[in-house]
Amino acid sequence: MKNNLMERYAGFVSKNKMLSPDFETIPLIERQNSFQYVGGQMIGRNLYSIVNSAEKMLKYSIPVGTMEFMGQFDDTDFKWTGGCAYQNILYAFPRFADSLLAYDPRSDTFEEISCGFDYKKEHHYGGVCTSDGMIYQPPRNTDHILKWDIKNKTCKKIQINNGSECRYCGSVIHPDGFIYFIPEKDFCVIKMDIYTEQISYIGEPVSGMTFNPVVAADGNIYGFRVQNGILKIDPSCDKVSIMYGNCNTGAYGTKNGINGRLYSLPGYTNDIWEFDPLGDGLKKCGSVYGKYAVNYAGGAVDLNGDIYALPVHADNILKINFGKYGVRIPPDIYDAFFKDFY
Prior knowledge:
The chain has 342 residues and is mostly beta strands. It is 6% helix and 49% strand. The protein starts with a helix and ends with a helix.
């Protein structure tokens, strides 16, 4: 079934390989404080931001093009980073906060679910959510993966690294049944079996901060790095490597395009990069006007393939537009390759 899904995904993007996006920005009705949002999620036809340092959550209604702010949070920096939409409820993953933030659009209510631990500092960064509602967050200055059971509202630690603190910054679920956690600096990639939670360390230690890697149509994992180049993980042999190490990508996220190519979300650069793992390689495909330290970080993909990047310091949402082609992503392909967590 997993191989069949990969084959169907490869066939889907092959049919769309000639499509090229255009780019636009959608102005914010109000800019929040510094480090506003990191990541976003789609629920229905609405885009929701993950509150990083902002005091309010942003909702953008795609069909009518309207924005509104919801909730009221303290002005602490780096509260939540990345998140998921599970059974039509938005969850924001704790980074500095000691709680999982839940928002139910149906009742327009927020809930903070305590982890039961008093961290006092940044402790985890981003994460993933499995199909049965288990969230796994990689460590940031701690010695454990944080596991949340959404249905039972419980949390526990999975110890790693022999009790020594470490820093990870990216996560991805592969259809092969493993979660891959990406190190920030001088650690090995963690490979964890979703079903047994058995952990192994693969490849040589790497650095460079790779937020939000994705699974491409060739079955490999790729992620544009904050520093130079692209991280590549080949799950068939557990090989980890860096490609295009002389190229300053400056990205705070990677998104799959419906054409089989990968797109960078411009972080500390203004450039948008396009990478074709099956053909043309790497090229610059667009740019944004940015005067900020970090423009965007993370975002979400709509069912028609439009990519939305959420602003960190920028005063707009970046849209990488594929919707003009009228393509609809099949639900299982969308869930496996386009619905991510940053």
